[in-house]
Design goal:
heterodimer; A: alpha/beta; Rossmann fold; 6-stranded mixed sheet; 5-stranded antiparallel sheet; 29% strand; B: 274 residues; mainly alpha; 13 helices; ATP binding (chain A); ATP-binding cassette domain-containing protein (chain A); ABC_transporter-like_ATP-bd (chain A); ABC_transporter_ATP-binding (chain A); ATP-binding (chain A)
Chain lengths: 302, 274
């Protein structure tokens, strides 16, 4: 078995005696897109800062690409890029000057890299405008370009979609997926807006009150925490009462029925029975979105 | 030490400094006051009898205290020339030292606390750069413009003084040995102490204004020097100036351990970024 790209074991961190992390443990495989999810103030940003070696944990151990963030912080930061919530740009400097400045800090030798990234994030025509005049979406895109200057193996994103419009969110998410597929970049993103990141993450770390409550792929979490299945079926069938085939059912609208099933295994038999009675155009599990799963997980760990 | 990083930070900072109105004002108004208005006022007042009897008496008494080596001064028979000579070479010099102190305080407070206020310090600390390089870059970015402004002021002062007094002294009054020692030894030392103190203060305070208020304390030794000239307590001489510069350089070394303590990235991050 190969060692995990990121390994966090029982990490505790407090600020002025106020505990923020109370035993975070998780692993991240190389090339994964991981979502660190949790409510505001649960310690997501602190976790990212610890992994970058800019603050020190009180106890526990961490490794990033086989390196210790405390001892090898600069080496970790050399292979990782980060987009912080505040973007961290110089507002009085133009987009191109911001990127040129950070290129020097990250020792980027390739002179064409700045132009390439401005083009990639649709900022070429705004290259010479001060970053302070940019919209939130443009600032986020510029911050992402800044984080990718040195072609990092690992990318940290703290609330990458905050303040973005739907088009901006789609552009950022598309870029992340392409980056991951093309370069195999490991992406570690944290957010509290769950539906925006569910299309990109391959694995999740759910955290609450400074500790990990569950980690795994979507299907692993689904199998463990989805206690019932809510299935909406588009059909011409009209049930006689509030139960059908032994399962509770209610009308959701014209030709739409909502079934409460004990698990996914019950779906084929139910659909076969409905098809025997009438037509079926579609069937969809409606309680498997990330947000529903998140609340199920938190309910169980409350 | 990574020279490319130090240079990048210094150049970025100098560009930002030169585009900041508040800093520009300090860099333009202060040299005008200390290097044009003040010497002009002194020379014109002495030349055209603007000084009253008691001031003249006070200055004459001070002149009597000067060491025997001040041949230039005793060679002047004209009392007005004596007063101008004394004012330019003894009284104006400590006041001129305010120029590097004020400019370096304004620039360094802006440079260090400015990153916090702009919320860009986080980006710098998250970059693969040594804190030592970050500090060196910032010290350089404060030193170069401060010293340039002071040097510019020095030249301006020379032009004003020598133009106004050439016929009176039949030669160049400025720069005397005191002034030469001041510009090559004392000014760099004062500038460096002022920057280092500002770096320490900036790491403790949250805003640019607070940093500037705290750094106001740095002018105290200069005020003492001005008072000592006016009362004749310790009239400056090349030896005294070299000595003061030496003490300041020693002070810089004494401040270094404090700066080194601030070199902890995690401490800087936890104290400054929320």
């Amino acid at each position: 078995m190969t060692a995990a790209f990121i390994q966090v074991d029982d990490v505790h961190k407090s600020f002025d005696g106020r505990p923020v992390l109370n035993g975070m443990s998780f692993t991240v495989e190389e090339g994964a897109i991981v979502g660190l999810l949790g409510p505001n103030g649960c310690g997501k940003t602190t976790m990212i800062r610890l992994l970058n070696g800019v603050i020190e944990q009180n106890s526990g151990s961490m490794s990033v690409a086989g390196m210790n963030p405390l001892a090898d912080g600069d080496d970790i930061r050399r292979i990782s890029g980060i987009v912080t919530e505040g973007a961290g740009l110089y507002h009085d400097m133009s987009a191109v000057d911001n990127l040129k400045f950070f290129s020097k800090l990250y020792q980027v030798k390739d002179k064409s890299r700045v132009r390439e990234l401005l083009e990639l994030f649709d900022l070429t025509e705004h290259a010479n405008k001060p970053a302070g005049t940019f919209s939130t979406g443009m600032k986020k895109r510029l911050a992402l370009a800044k984080a990718l200057l040195h072609k990092p193996k690992l990318l940290f994103l703290d609330e990458p979609t905050n303040g973005l419009d739907p088009e901006g969110i789609r552009l950022v998410m598309k870029s992340l997926l392409e980056l991951n597929e093309r370069d195999g970049t490991t992406i570690f993103l944290c957010s509290h807006v769950l539906h925006q990141i569910e299309t990109v993450c391959s694995t999740y770390i759910f955290m609450d009150k400074g500790r990990t409550i569950v980690t795994g792929t979507r299907s692993m979490i689904e199998n463990r925490y989805m206690k019932s299945v809510e299935l909406v079926v588009e059909t011409g069938m009209l049930p006689a009462g509030d139960r059908y085939a032994g399962y509770p059912v209610r009308k959701e609208g014209l030709n739409r029925l909502r079934f409460s099933l004990p698990g996914k295994d019950a779906i084929p038999a139910l659909l076969r029975q409905i098809l025997a009675d009438n037509w079926v155009h579609s069937a969809e599990i409606v309680n498997r979105d990330l947000e529903s799963l998140y609340f199920e997980v938190r309910k169980e760990h409350a | 030490m990574n020279w490319q990083v130090i240079q990048a930070i210094a150049i970025k900072d100098i560009r930002q400094i030169t585009s900041n109105m508040q800093v520009w004002l300090a860099m333009v108004i202060i040299p005008i006051v200390f290097c044009i208005v003040l010497p002009l006022a002194i020379i014109l007042a002495s030349k055209y009898g603007g000084m009253n009897g008691s001031t003249e008496d006070m200055i004459r008494k001070l002149i009597e205290k000067l060491p025997a080596g001040s041949m230039n001064l005793s060679a002047q028979t004209d009392v007005n020339a004596q007063i101008i000579y004394f004012a330019i070479n003894y009284m104006l010099l400590p006041l001129f030292l305010m120029l590097p102190i004020i400019t370096s305080s304004v620039i360094s407070a802006n440079s260090f606390v400015g990153e916090k206020e702009r919320r860009t310090l986080e980006s710098l600390l998250l970059a693969p750069i040594r804190i030592k390089d970050l500090f060196l870059g910032k010290i350089l970015a404060s030193f170069i413009p401060s010293y340039t402004v002071t040097l510019g002021g020095f030249i301006l002062l020379g032009i004003v003084v020598d133009t106004m007094t050439y016929t009176m002294f039949e030669g160049l009054l400025f720069p005397s040995m005191n002034w030469i020692i001041a510009i090559v030894w004392l000014v760099p030392a004062f500038t460096l102490v002022s920057i280092l103190l500002n770096a320490i203060i900036s790491a403790r305070v949250k805003t640019f204004q607070a940093a500037q208020q705290m750094s106001g304390l740095i002018v105290l030794p200069v005020i003492m020097l001005v008072i000592s000239q006016m009362t004749g307590l310790m009239l400056i001489s090349p030896l005294i100036l070299v000595g003061i510069g030496g003490v300041l350089i020693l002070l810089c070394f004494a401040l270094l351990p404090q700066i080194a303590r601030m070199n902890s990235r995690s401490l800087l991050f936890e104290k400054q970024i929320h």
